[in-house]
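Form 7-S
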Amino acid sequence: ERIHTRAKETASNLWQLYLLRTLDEIALLVFTNSDMPFFDAVCISFSNISTGGFSVRNENIASYQSGATEAIVLIFMILGSINFSLYFHLLRLKFFRIYVPDFFLFLASALLGCIVVSFFLIGQPQAGLEGGAATYSWLDAIRQGSFQALSVQTSTGFITANYDRWPFASQMFLLLLMFIGGMSGSTSGGIKTSRFYILYKIVLHRLESLYRPDSVRKLKI
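Output:
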C-alpha cells in the first residue's frame, strides 16, 4: 500500500517507525528485567522487530527466567507481524483504516493457535530446555504454548521450551501456524494471511459461478 507519493518519504517514515519500535523494546526489556545486560536487550530487540529470532544465549529467552521478558518479546513479535501501513494510519488517527479482513484474520489465527497448542499441553510433562519432571498446569501451558505458537507463526523463532518433546497434536498445529504466517507488509514469514483471504474469496466466487453461470458479479478484495 502506498503511504506517500514519493518512495523516499515512504522509506524515511518506515525507517523512523522501525527505529522507534526497536528503541521502545530495548527500554522495556531493560526496565522490566534488571538482570538483563544491555547488550542482550539490544540483540533481542534487533532480532525481534525483524522476526529473526537471534539470541546470544544457548537457552534463548528461557535463560532469563522472566515472565515480563517473555511478555514483552511476545508483544513485539505480534507487532512485527502486522502490516506496517496500519501503524501510519494509527499515527494519523485514521482508526477506521485498520478494519481490514487481513488484520482480523491474523488475530483470529494467532488466538486460535495459542488456545489449541496450550490446550494439548495441560497435564503433559514439562519440556524445558534442560528437562524436568513436572507437568504443565493450565497457567504454564498458556504461557509456554502461546509463546511458542506466536513465535512459530511470526517466524521469529524464539523459544522458551523444548517443543520437540510436546504432544503430537501441539507439534502438528505449530506446523500449520508456520505455514500461515503474519500479515503482508510485515517482517514475518509464512504464506501470509492476505493470500489465504484471497484464496477464500476466489473459491467462493468460483462456486457461485458454477451454480449461477449466467450472473455477472465482481470479485473485490
